[in-house]
Amino acid sequence: MTIKSNNSGGAPVIPSKRQIFLDALRGFALLGVCLANYPEFSLYTFQSDATLASMPSADTDNIVKFFLYLFIDGKFYTLFSLLFGIGFSIIISNAAERGADGFRIFYRRMAILALIGCTHLMLIWSGDILLLYALLGMLLPLFRNLSDRKLLTLASLLLLIPVGIDALCEATNTFLASYPYERWWQTAATYGITEENFGSWLRDAQSYREVQEFLLQGAWERLYEFVDGNRYFKVFGLFLIGFTIGRRKMYANLGAHKRLLQWVASIGAVIGIPFSCLYALSGISSHSFGIGIHSLLYAVSVYPLGFCYAALLGLICLHFPKSPIWKWFAWPGRMALTNYISQSLIGALLFYGIGFGLGASVGLWETELIAASVFLFQIIFSKGWLHFFRFGPLEWIWRILTYGKWLPLLKK
């Protein structure tokens, strides 16, 4: 790739044209993702029921776990997926204004994101979502000429397909994820990772080599999670909804869509909160209602409440457009890729044996307090960084490779 410094062809959105609401929504989603992911970094998720029950904070942790299922689980990755679809529409629109080949730019952008996601998955954390986003994102241009109605109809079907699959698998005792599941534990056994030491391996790791061994088997575990959870249907359905929102540029004129925002916020809350309570009960009781029912509860709780969050923030932005809170969330939102990856690096430093080794020793409420503190640090860091620089460090590299030309990092 030839890197040159000029203004021809495509280019990223300049700061003066950025939508602070989208950046703030992205920052808000980043907070939720941090709260959702850190129980895995702290190894709390990997502990046995007996170990969790023996923790001094067990009673408090059970309450926190319920509220995490109620308000956090799935809702913020829903927001991120919507934002990804919106971002696709912005890339194409921005490139069209400059007469560039928007799809060539988009595919290059996705290829680079896939490389970043693969690096994150194999070298830092097994819970990566970027690789899946990049691969599924490459399918988006195929649907660009569909009408809004067809896009939303297809998206609805994609979001409901996992319910049918899970119900059918439960009824027929079929395990679709058997291959990645078997490869996961075969790879784990190669390194001596067992169910007994799974929850303490990373805490006890004294070298990065041991962490790498865990990550290698963790890549198969992640594939198993995607297949078992039908994640590709869910993510792509949300992409299509986000693309529809972006194509209408609803984020740029919230006032014109106030009624729709009110309807989505109210209906989303009325449907999402009660069913999220049932979803939380199913989650903390290890799917006691059955896999099919748990999948149905996910669909009627996670999506409505996730959409409610987005619409509610839009309404708040309409009523309090000059509130400083938008800047607080927009700072980390403008550096979402950098902050997403840095959350993993900080988590590894805090909880793994190659760092401070706090894993498997802190309760859930302490883990969430740490996660909130990490996000607060990211707000402060992002504000300071963006005072001097135009992009976050990873965003800058991503843009240079995407657009094939040098982009100044320092502000003039």
Short description:
The chain is globular and about 55 Å long.
Report on this structure.
The protein is an all-alpha fold. The chain has one domain (15-177, 229-403). It is built from 17 helices and no strands. The chain has helices spanning 20-41, 49-54, 58-71, 75-97, 102-123, 130-137, 148-172, 178-190, 201-204, 208-228, 231-247, 258-284, 291-319, 325-334, 336-351, 364-388, 393-403. Helix 4 packs antiparallel against helix 5. The relative contact order is 0.18. The model is unreliable at 1-9 (pLDDT under 50).
By secondary-structure content and strand pairing, the structural class works out as mainly alpha
How does the major sheet shape up?
none
β-strand percent reads under 5%
Shape from CA axes? globular
Specify Rg, calculated over alpha carbons: 21 Å
Uncertain runs are 1-9
Determine the fraction of residues in helical runs and give it as a percent range: over 70%
Tell me, rounded to a whole number, the average pLDDT: 93
- The count of strands amounts to 0
How many H/I helices?
Answer: 17
Q: What is the count of distinct domains?
A: 1
Cα(first) to Cα(last) distance is: 27 Å
Oligomer: single chain
Element pattern in H and E = HHHHHHHHHHHHHHHHH
